[in-house]
Amino acid sequence: MAQEASIVCALLALDCEGLKGAVLKGPGGPAQDAFIQAFRDTLRERTIFRLPPHAGIDRLAGSLDIAETLRTGMPCHDRGLLAEADGGVLLLTSAERLPAEKAALIAAQLDDGPSRFAVIVLDEGLDDEAAPAILRERIAFHINTGAFDAVAPADLHAARRLLPGVSVPGHIAEGLCQTALALGIASLRPAVMALRAARAAAAIDGRSVVDDDDARLAARLVLAPRARRFPVEEQEQDAPPSPPEAQSSEAEGEETAPTPGELSEMLLEAVKASLPEGLLAALEANLREVQAKSGAGAVSQKMGLARGRPAGTRHGVPRNGARLSLIDTLRAAAPWQPLRRRQSPARDGLLVERADFRVKRFKQKRQTTAIFAVDASGSAALHRMAEAKGAVELILADCYVRRDEAALIAFRGKTADLLLPPTRSLQRAKKSLADLPGGGGTPLCAGIEQAMLVAQNVRRGGGTPLVVFLTDGKANIARDGTADRALALRDAETAASVLKRAGVRALMIDLSDARGGPARRIADAMGASYLALPHADAARISHSVSAVMKA
């Protein structure tokens, strides 16, 4: 796999603008750093511009420099990072968090913008998180960084001189297009990029004509990661006899080029050989997924940067959607007018400088997600489970009014299950609550770890998690699944300390009759608010949780 990564690096370095870039999928680490360093060593004449996901639209696309415009009396503009990256490489870090409107701007530049650059996308998303589809479609190579360790830079001086004269035979171009269709790739872009990758491979090998091996390499590197399905082998049908003219025209023993159909079958076999084991079965499921829109429609989800209720002003430049507070700006500039007029007697009117700018501040309520981790073990009495279900249903109704969300985790036996992902749907909640199981051991550690995972996902989505534990704290199932009460309590305290270090707000509702028992120890370990409600009903639990959520 290291050799394949080196080939990708060389192909991309040879034809940056045509192949557009590479998506590096996987956790950040030495593998990503090795690829970027090799790419930097191969393209010494190109500058790499880093774009973090929090960079604003104005920094990306450029904007009017208000301070410089006021100072000179003429419109002055910032170029923006996309213009500055012309002729270089744009490095997108944490691309799975890149907003759709920024991805659309970059995609427009890749298509036909005035700036020409390549893009290296660092995609560290987990599960269903991924870099925007509008970018992944336009970038040739998709690499799993966990598959290689080191990348060696290549010397491409001779290949650069040869590349413009490399030609592609017609049967190879048609074969690559047929292969893309057979793999369920609807867009024409991957087939075009596969052709460019084949031309670059031929140039690196010192040839001016693309051959079948170049096509196989391009299909494996460009088309295979995009495969949505694999064609089912059909039963062979009797082929019609060849025309007499065609049979007589072939000289005996003469080698002929494969037809596009034959080449497509060869390329499919090459793609099949490069796919990981077990992936072909998963490809069929991908057909049922709804493909993300790639185009201008992706910008329709844009969120304004100045929403909520007014909360005064602050010093700053009106960029990235921030609104200029004209009155406060003029008020800040007024005391300096005599001094500025003496310094600049040739300037007329009100003299406003960058230090005078004031922008409006807004307070926007962040969505809170209450994550209920309910002890469904045998130690929790049946009436306690009924109270917990009633409390969750009441809080969900309250969350629906406030536009907050709630999730439900039940831990029993040896595992903890997410019965209800974060939602505001009362119907889904009632169904999950009705099926809430009971009985078995108390794997409190598993419940805390599952709540931590859900809380992390809520934070990635921009929300604020609140974990609510309803338990008596009598853990008796350890992290490894063994029935050891002392070890189970130590594992639960360790998991609780991890939750505390992550800064996740938590509320421990002790349902046992003994105040200050094991539930109190767990609450102290996780830094949670402790509430002993041995005789609480659903209404009291709901009122307590709602008070914490509103705090």
Description:
With 551 residues, the chain is of the alpha/beta class. It has four domains: 1-155, P-loop containing nucleotide triphosphate hydrolases (Rossmann fold); 156-231 and 260-288, Helicase, Ruva Protein, domain 3; 311-363, no CATH class; 368-550, von Willebrand factor, type A domain (Rossmann fold), CATH 3.40.50. The protein is 44% helix and 14% strand. It is built from 23 helices and 13 strands. It has helices at residues 2-14, 16-19, 30-42, 57-61, 66-72, 81-84, 100-112, 133-136, 157-162, 170-182, 189-204, 212-223, 244-249, 260-274, 279-286, 326-333, 337-343, 382-402, 426-434, 444-460, 485-501, 518-526, 538-550; strands spanning 21-25, 48-51, 89-92, 118-123, 141-144, 309-315, 358-363, 368-375, 405-412, 415-423, 464-471, 505-510, 529-532. It has a six-stranded mixed sheet with strand order 10-9-8-11-12-13, sandwiched between helices. The protein has a five-stranded parallel sheet with strand order 2-3-4-1-5. A two-stranded antiparallel ribbon has the order 6-7. It starts with a helix and ends with a helix. The relative contact order is 0.08. Residues 234-240, 242-254 and 282-305 have low confidence and may be disordered.
